[in-house]
């Protein structure tokens, strides 16, 4: 069947091409196709969505970036023993970039569509990803913004309140090593923290985590744990409270305090815990004359260290007559395109 776009009378409005046979699309034409089986965009080894870069052997078997690092240069394709070197599969990468799928949390309220290669990273930050209730006897799951309400209604009796003044003011946590979990809640921002014990042969690992999507939003916290017995003192300070969707029983490989058996007396651990809100590096950009008689200040927060300015997220655009000078503390420059985006959004 003849494609209507290749009809001679349409030729004048098309982009010029040096390749005579190539069918040209109109500048603003968008066409979409239906993919009947999304599995073709998953890695054949780990079955997770393929991400960029994707690699291939000379026979065209593909493997995701993560598995590529594990197959030690040997193609995992069926019956294939070709090397899988640094050959990228650009065709598949283009498909991944242009295949947009709705977030898997659509039914819980997320309205975002993301390119298939970003599915995994979006789900780590999506506020609608399903969190499990930190009470180990409860099967409830719900979005991050409703799990707090559920916990307060059903499990308040065996949890601890934590101060909303985030300055390492410590709270006593008494945890039964066998029960493994103690939940703390903060009422102002509606946060749930979990202190967890992992008993193994030589002692107990203790961690503090927060129930939330692992890469969500701006608020970040650090914590300090200490344990004292018979004049001995164990203290651990973590640069960041990690976030998780579900309490699990896997022994952590980082961010934990370890209490050796020789310092344990009985089943109970008496800990002192301090949680501190991390200072976010504020960015400010001043623009005059955009709105007559006032100045536009673009305020954002660095969510990565200061040398990675590209990670800036514009949090807020404010038109103010006279901003407080405190706004300029720790301010760093913003890239031009980020300013452009903020302006576009604020004028809209
Ligand atoms: Zn894989
Ligand atoms: Zn192969
Ligand atoms: Zn989402
Ligand atoms: Zn529950």
What does this protein structure show overall?
The structure is a single chain. By secondary structure, this protein is an alpha+beta fold. The protein has three domains: 37-126, Herpes Virus-1; 131-277, Apoptosis, Tumor Necrosis Factor Receptor Associated Protein 2, Chain A (Sandwich), CATH 2.60.210; 281-347, no CATH class. The chain is built from five helices and 19 strands. The protein has helices at 65-68, 90-98, 119-125, 144-155, 336-347; strands at residues 55-56, 62-63, 100-102, 113-115, 130-132, 141-143, 159-161, 171-176, 181-186, 191-200, 203-211, 221-229, 232-238, 242-244, 257-260, 268-277, 281-288, 295-302, 313-320. Strands 7, 9, 10, 11, 14 and 15 form a six-stranded mixed beta sheet that branches. The structure holds zinc ion (4 copies). The site of one zinc ion has 7 residues, from helix 1.
> How many separate helices?
5
Let me know the CATH homologous superfamily of the largest domain.
Apoptosis, Tumor Necrosis Factor Receptor Associated Protein 2, Chain A
Bulk shape: globular
Distance between the termini: 44 Å
Helix content: 10-25%
Domains counted in the coordinates: how many? 3
CATH architecture label name of the largest domain: Sandwich
Level-1 CATH class name of the largest domain: Mainly Beta
Q: What is the CATH topology assignment of the largest domain?
A: Apoptosis, Tumor Necrosis Factor Receptor Associated Protein 2, Chain A
